[in-house]
Amino acid sequence: MGNITFVEHDGTQHTVVFEEGKSLMQTAIDNLVPGIDADCGGSCACGTCHVFVDPDWIASTGTAGDEELLMLDMTPEKMATSRLSCQVQTSVEMDGMIVHLPEFQM
Ligand code: FES
Description:
Blueprint: E1 2-7, E2 13-18, H1 24-30, E3 50-53, H2 58-61, H3 66-72, E4 82-84, E5 97-100
Parallel strand pairs: 1-5
Antiparallel strand pairs: 1-2, 3-4, 3-5
Domain 2Fe-2S ferredoxin-type: 2-105
Keywords: 2Fe-2S, Iron, Iron-sulfur, Metal-binding
Protein name: 2Fe-2S iron-sulfur cluster-binding protein
């Protein structure tokens, strides 16, 4: 258990409690965070769960794997700390983490 803050492009913040082991995508969905559509249900096949991990926290999430990068390469908003939130398993080290939501994912 811990808190993760999702920040919308306009600065609106959503601080939610996460259960360790649940994906970052599922955590967002369960807490009605806007902008995470997760059309493929978490199988790394749609790219609609894109987030930018705050640079201070990328060591906690790690960077995207090869399959994930293929999906991320299809979005013009991709950044160095981009992750597909369905591919990030939450862990206790993520307590206090901040992730940002893309502008064009609503
Ligand atoms: Fe589809 Fe993450 S939910 S890629």
